[in-house]
Amino acid sequence: MTQPDTRAPAPPTPQGAWAEALARLAADQQQVRAGGGPKAQQRQHEKNRLTARERIARLVDEGTPFDELMTFTGYGMYEDVGGCPSGGTVTGIGTIAGRPWMIIANDATVKAGAFFPITAKKVIRAQTIALENALPVVYLVDSAGVYLPMQDEIFPDQDDFGRVFYLNARMSAQGIPQIAAIMGNCVAGGAYLPVMCDTLIMTEGSGLYLAGPALVKAAIGQVVDSEELGGADMHASIAGTVDYKEPDDDAALARIRALADLYAQGDPAPFARRRKETLPAPERDLTELVGFDGSKTYDVRDLITSIVDSGEFHEFKPEYGETIVCGFARVGGFPVGFVANQRTVIKKKLKSGGEPGLRTRIEVGGVIYGDSADKAARFILDANQAGVPLVFLSDVTGFMVGRDSEQEGIIRRGAKLVNAVSNSVVPKITIITGGSFGAGNYAMNGKAYAPRFLFAWPSAKYAVMSGNAAAKTLLDIQLAALKRSGHPPDDVELQKLYDEVKAKYDTELDPRYAAARLWVDEIIPPNDTRNRLIRALEACAQNPVQEEFKVGVFQV
Prior knowledge:
Elements (H helix, E strand, L loop, with lengths): L15 H18 L4 H9 L5 H8 L6 E4 L19 E8 L2 E8 L10 H17 L3 E7 L7 H4 L6 H13 L4 E10 L4 H4 L3 E5 L3 E3 L3 H8 L5 H5 L1 H6 L6 E3 L2 H12 L25 H4 L10 H8 L5 E4 L7 E8 L2 E8 L4 E5 L8 E5 L3 E2 L1 H17 L3 E7 L1 E2 L3 H5 L2 H14 L4 E10 H6 L9 E4 L4 E3 L3 H18 L6 H19 L1 H6 L5 E2 L5 H12 L16
Parallel strand pairs: 3-4, 4-5, 5-6, 5-7, 6-8, 11-15, 14-16, 15-17, 17-18, 17-19, 18-20
Antiparallel strand pairs: 1-2, 2-3, 9-10, 10-11, 12-13
Helix pairs in contact: 4-6, 14-16, 18-19
């Protein structure tokens, strides 16, 4: 497997706002990855058990990265019950025996690994990534089951706890390998997941049962200890549930590695069969190119050529629909198509309106106009025809509004683009580098459009409209309500109200807010973009199946 290029020296250290944002990102990641904290980690070690991240570090091939996904799950949520760092589980893609595997590990330092509502959704997202990319899965199970005080939010719905087992079974039916290791508690409904895997490993001292000793006593009056009820010896020798009994975590992890090395390797995806040698990208600090606050204009072609092999980019229709840039390149040797929002100010030539010659107008970068929607839709068709994955670089304000735009058919042309994105069958990866607002999020392959992976820079802003516009709209609504109630605010109250509305909306714009709710898969530093993209393409390359491309009713 060709590895991402690492020959180029590290780019210079970012300065100013970027330096502050990246330092905060690193600090927040460190805090989240501490799970339940040092005392909880110590309790885990006293049980002769490793923490979730320690287990993963020993499981993956030495010297290879573990690409953690959904690190900020639950960030700032459930604070009234002590929080749920990283959703109480660790997920990501790591290399085991030379092959990428999805790894899903309960973090027993967070509420004994119990499932909160967001925990189930995180596991489901990790399983969905595995299913879509035909990635084999390792489950490192150490969970007390559902967090009972919130059972009504965890148990019943389509994307709740039961969906975990549904996907478990669907992956098994499709021949996607799944290995589970019980390395602590495995209780109640959660007990089905490891048993539905191809292979089940269990460490001594662990427990696997539908109901623990206390519940059994309460339910049927039977007194039984944990080992007799559901210990590793019982399941290995009497129930026959366990395939391999191991003395401790290290032995279980070694068994997983040995078994993983035996699995057959399937055919690569069609696009991956055209992979060539990885060539280095031009050395460039992306934080110098793209401003943190979105106020700096930049040519997105410079961003594209900074992350593609040899900086070689074959742009599609470069002089038409210029607020979206499209074209083909190679990344890590893989062929890819880019759909990217242009962030320069463009002087657009227009058809004459009765007078001879051409007129011009200024088009704002980040806005999708009718011709750029047409171009991007057509390019997506071309990429699907060629079987080439699509990478969306999203820094979008939205679609153009106003009389001229409406008369030019922006709704019809925007619908065409959304149709093409929705029905695309090649792998799609989205990277949000700045704003991702309103319907522009949809057109640029937002979460609702099933990207295989969705990454965001710390500069990403994710909402229905920009902060200032939203704050003013919300303020107007509240002001009207106050006037109707007979209490029009004075200037001081008005400013306070605006500040409160703006602060709340700015919090919701932060990518951590989005990542906490799984609207993005991971927040990444800009200068990690190329390597994360290459490894995401390597994961996509594991699925050889490509559906037939159909677009249904296509607006013209």
